[in-house]
Model the fold of this input.
Amino acid sequence: MSARRNDKPEAPPAGLRGDDRGAWDKVIAWLKDEAHHGDPAPVARQALAEYRRFDAAVAKEEAELLANPLLWNDEEQALGLWIGRAFHEFTQSAVAALGRFAEARVAGQSGNDIAAALAGLAFTAGGAALKWTEVAGAGRRGAAVAEMNRAFGIVEALDLVRDKPVTVAAGRDQSPSLESHYSRVMLLDAFCRGNLGRAQVAILDSWLWEWAPEYRVTRTALPGALLAVEGHGARGARALAAGETPAGRLLWIEPLGEQIAGAVRAFHEGSIPPGRGISLIFRVEEHAAVLDHLRAFLDIARRGLPARQVREGCEAFVELLVGLPEILAKAFSPRGWGGNVIASHGGGQRSIEERQLEVNRRRLRLVDESASGLGLEGDDADQSLAVGTLVALRREDGGPPLLAEVARRVAVAGAPTRIGMRILSGDPRRLTLERQSRRGQVDALYLPGTDSSGRADAILVAQSDFDPQAYLDARLGDRHYGLRLNRIRHLGRGWVLAGLEVLEERVQDVPPAMELSLAPA
Amino acid sequence: MKTGGVMDLLRWEPEAAGRAPVASPAVRLVAAAPRARAMNDTAFLPAPDLDAFEWEEPVVSVAALQRPRPAAPAIDPVPEPVRGPAPALAQAVALAPPDEPGRARIRQRYFSVRFPGAPGSASDGKDPAATIKAARLHFEDGDGERAVELLEFAIQTSPLEPRLWLALLEILFLERESEAFVRAARSFRDRFPQAAEWAEVARLGWRLAPREPAFASGRPVVKAADAHYGAWPEAPNWIEASWDLTAEVLAVELRSRVLRSGGGFTLGA
Done:
């Protein structure tokens, strides 16, 4: 369907559900056509008006979609993807009109306010496209970054970098400079790589609207945190390698340190920054997770990326056990891994247990490997592999099993889901702990650290089993060790990696009168 | 207000003259959101009830755009940022800052998320030993930033507890955070001008920030008195680390026994 140019479709409804989207598709297609063939000034007015209308319609859906902690149903997934695509098409229209306007201006026309407004619209819609694509779990939208680079190139050529057109985002008027707009979308893109949850993306977006005015796009290496930005193409911002001489277009984000500190102060005072907007409806946990991402990001931007670990393209399959209960039940049993199930197929009738094991088997293609992580590809049908999920995995072509955590998940329509794994340990040990206060056992994994002093060792337990006050008894041979899990080092999805302190050691099977206690004084 | 430029599209007009532009014409609040409760319990409440709002079509003054533009300059001045109307949702959740119980809840929630596993008594500084121990564990795990934040968090509610300040100062010293150390040291001196520990604080501070006048008294009188090889022999123990190494020895023994006992992953077939 393509409406004849200048034949504007009817105003779309205020909603986005069901058939409403079809009406919006017509308007967006018409705008795109106008942007490529119409006079840029009227196109700008129409695009801005329709964008404001569209933003209001999205704002109406946003809270319901983003605050939903459950997996989206098909309708919600379709809506999220459609919103991301629609924002991207607004971006394309704005950039196309901006490009045509720039060409006309070279011929002697004026009207930089229109150009600035179009650029503001392009960046606002582009940022929203990045956000919604990430929210919908559809992978990175590199095309949006390419549009942003094109728009900023025009903005620089027209000397509009400091202009502050008023635009609208989530129903709120915003007017950062075009430099700030560009900084914001580049940072948003740098974060939207599959490791943020829906709420976290929305929180980050709301913070960046507040914070981006303090960042600078520069060609001079200012002191502090810097990112390199390629001025064209879809790559976006990247961390400098440690020792790399900064050159070309740079994004200076050193104020992020003080901005993080400001957000932390707000939480200490009992308020949720920025104190307004949709992010207020999200749990404090989500905000704290975003702050952790920001701290890690800032650290890399300040110090540079360490020499990259060896990462080799590889083609193999890995077998996965998912979740602590399954790992405890199968990873330590010779019959637990699927290899035995396959081996038993030739033996005739399979047992129920074997069939259950086979049903639960998960195989993913190993596409990338380094010392600290793995990249896997697989069928998107397995939604259990969310970020933070604990897995044990084993290469089918040999090699020792590994304990890992899902660190990143990117689902792109029509392509296999890509999953990044962070390796936790190559040598976890199963450990059974007895609770002293209330009867019962805690099944745990002991993760030896690299330091032989035991200082970096940790115990992994189900989150429900973690109790920092509980006295736990570990029996190893003729010795009992009294332990306390006294802090959480890392919190996963339903599991906890805890630091431990050893309270005492007792020798078993010694008459009570002679029992030797080595408890600290 | 200037009119006639394309920028007018981007502004919200107040509904009537003399009325503050606080309500978006596009999104009008027709029913009050549960403001007090929402702010009291921001972190735990579900999204505001969207049925409480009436959504309207945006009103865009296209007519103004059609007025003849001034001959020159053709470009309207860039308006100052318009921080005006927010949508109904934003208004609903940002009507007022949280009241005191609400703030306390957010603080407590933040504490439990940021310092998971730390005893609740460590949050308000009422149990300095628990707070300092939790901070020391973070520091020993290589997370000095979190250790510092925990102590600052507790100091906010117990600013008159000197042990918390001293532990903070020691960790900042060990982390070589000179600017933060200077700030914390000044605050400590303001609150505890007679503290006997000030001499030690100044001694540490002079090594981090020798140009800071407050630490002038920390400069060693006799240069030789400060000479040493390896680790500094006269460090304070305000983070209350145990001198007893039995637990460390037991940790090595436990590790050794766990690794010897097997119990690792099986390789399968």
Remarks:
- Chain A touches chain B through 110 residues (CB under 8 Å).
